[in-house]
Amino acid sequence: MILHDRIAEILPAWRDRVNHLVTEHRDFKVCDVTVSQIYQGIRGVQIQVTDISYVDPYEGLRLRGYTIPEVLEKLPRLPGCEFPMAGGLYYLLMTDSLPSYEEALEVEDEWKKYAVIPQYVIDMIHTMPRNTHPMTLFSQGIMALGVDSIFSRQYLNGLAKSDYWIPTLDDSIRLTAKLPALAAVIYNWKYRDGSVIAPNPDLDWSGNFAYMIENPNNHEYEELCRLFFLLHSDHEGANVSAHTAHLVNSALSDVYLASSAAMNGLAGPLHGLANQECLRWLLKVYNSFESLPSKEEMADFARAELKSGRVIPGYGHAVLRTTDPRFTAQYEFAKKYLPDDELYQLVCRIYEVLPGILKETGKVKNPYPNVDAINGTLQYHYGVREFDFYTVLFGVSRILGITAHAVWARALNKPIERPKSLTTAILEERVAGKPDTVEVEM
Ligand code: CMX
């Protein structure tokens, strides 16, 4: 398959680069770790290397070196479509180069071969209690698909280490192929009549999700899916979901196990679940005013929220120090497709006043909107109003990045991850200047 061929072609040079770093510069110190970092979520500690994506504080996300506007401009799109095919994005993430139209189509065609969800997975979802969170169903569905893992089967048969990446890529293609259908099965069962709609072979991967949930606004919603699934596909390697997948996969658990684990992290309110909170807050603001609030009214509302100790969802970021370009891309989409939507107009009003107010606090490091400040507004406009489902959409997209990380981690022979933990007493002894007794094997 095209992804296998291209990775095989570029892999020797990548292995040389990494081997050079590890052999010639093995003792080069990358960063120090402070006591406060250890106790505060290892924030800022540079513990991962990934070439799939990088988040620059001032430019935002780069996917394989390309900014979001560049990716949107350069990736191939189907005739009549404004936004690129996810197949082209996957080619870029996996192979480090921009695909031609034909190459993007080849990935889309490969996905089509594996897009249908086996009946036993549908049955499993349909027998769960109705109140099961869609992220639980999504994670379970991914795990259940893993019975067919090619990596796990070949590993038992004595696969050579240098070839681990090949069945990892096979699994990745088969898993990602099924994600839109899996999400649609969950959506239709949780919120509709439970119909199972087969993927439409005439549509691309992203557009198919819109088709399988029978979105009445199909063409525009297909376009939103193309944009949304592209924007959420990756965000470096050390956020909770990416790091979880990396850790689990480093034990040679296959990509189904690793992706399911990642989704369990994404399901947390401090990670992927934040987007539903943003829409909830936006609706609270919306319902507090009879019409679009003036700038002054909005400013007073925001100040009162801050005064009562609440955070404003959708604003701020741990790494970014500017407006998230993923926010901007969706903002531009809304400007074109739904300029009269009242929630979108509220998003614009908040964007006008909130950065200034957050700056007034003197403590918020990034007073600008992140991607979640607008995600829900667009889904809501197109009738996907079930907030708890939004994280599943995020997950469908994010597994594109997660599986690309996994293929490259195996291709570059990354070993099992095993950092060292200490005790409080050891730290106390160290800060008191006592001799260090911890032996660390390098
Ligand atoms: N509203 C109010 N206060 C905020 C704020 C916001 N949107 N963003 C940051 N602050 C506050 C923090 O709570 C912190 O206050 P204390 O010192 O009193 O604890 C202070 O400003 C400094 O925080 P920071 O260093 O600027 O931000 P962090 O890196 O600690 O946190 C984040 C980042 C995203 C958790 C935070 O900005 C936040 O809670 N935002 C709102 C929730 C949100 O939008 N989450 C989605 C994140 C999307 C993503 O991660 O991709």
TrEMBL record:
Keywords: Acyltransferase, Transferase. Its EC number is 2.3.3.16. Pathway: Carbohydrate metabolism; tricarboxylic acid cycle. It is an enzyme of class 2 (transferase). GO terms for molecular function: citrate synthase activity. It comes from the Bacteria. Pfam families: Citrate_synt. InterPro entries: Citrate_synth-like_lrg_a-sub, Citrate_synth-like_sm_a-sub, Citrate_synthase, Citrate_synthase_AS, Citrate_synthase_sf. One of its GO terms (biological process) is carbohydrate metabolic process. Belongs to the citrate synthase family. This is citrate synthase (unknown stereospecificity). It comes from Leptolinea tardivitalis.
